[in-house]
Each structure stands twice: as C-alpha cells, then as structure tokens.
Amino acid sequence: MLDIKFVRENPDIVKENIKKKFQDQKLPLVDEVITLDKQARELQQEADELRAKKNSIAKQIGALMAQGKKEEAEEVKKEVAKNSARLAELEKLEPEVRAALTEKMMVIPNIIDDSVPIGKDDSENVELERFGEPVVPDFEVPYHTDIMEK
Questions:
Q1: pLDDT per position as a tens digit, 116-138
Q2: Which residues of 85-119 are buried (b: 16+ CB within 10 A; e: fewer)?
Q3: What domains can be seen in the chain, in order of their start residue?
C-alpha cells in the first residue's frame, strides 16, 4: 500500500502509474483518497481543538466555583456539554472515514519501478536471466486443490 503522504503530494505520479498498469478504472480512487484524507485530517483537527477547549473550560469552571460564581459556572458547563456532544459525533465519524480511506488506499496499485518494462500483459515480459532448463515431469502434475483435498 502506498503512503498517504506520497499520494497527497504526488497524485499525478500515482495516476500515471495506474495508467501504466492499464487499470484506468482505478483513476478516480486517487481523487477519492485525497478527499477522504482531507476530511479525516479536518475531523481530527476539530476533535483535537474541542478536547483542548474542553480542558481549558474545565479549569475555568474550577476557578469560577472557587470564586463562588455558580451561575457563571453553570453557563460554562452548558458550553462543555455542547462541545462534548460534537466531540462524540467526531469520535464516531473519524474511524469510519479512516476505514473508508484505508479500503480505497489498498486498491491503488504500488508504483512500478523505473527499470520495469511496460507491457499490456505477461506475454510482453522480458526475460533477464535463466538458470538451467525448465524441468518437465514424466507424470501428470495434480491440480493444487486436488493435493490440498487429499
């Protein structure tokens, strides 16, 4: 699987690689992955900001209670409750977005090495080295599922 940072920074290279593999149906995945990645990072950032705000407000509530300002503390508690509800939404949504992102990332093919010749199928493969001659057994080789069932 490719690194999300690489896909984010080099979408054209990833798309060109998909074209070299003759898998054009996977081209839209690159844009979808970039969109999901942006959404996941925004969700995480918002959740982190809400957590930080919640912590600072908790200190503020403690200070108000110590000063005997219960009414003001109750108002601030309402804001904490609102932030907590939004944070719960984000904490539920973020893993779903990350899972969708990972699922799509796993379908995008790895980058072909520059030394690999491009061909439509394995008939266009280039043989670089050969060690000995292929052995042809003098008996019928059973199919792998037949071996497994026995």
A1: 888 888 888 888 888 998 888 99
A2: eebeebeeebeebbeebeebbeebeebeeeeeeee
A3: 4-112 (1.10.287.40)
Alpha-carbon gap, residue 117 to 72, rounded angstroms: 71
pTM of the predicted protein model: 0.73
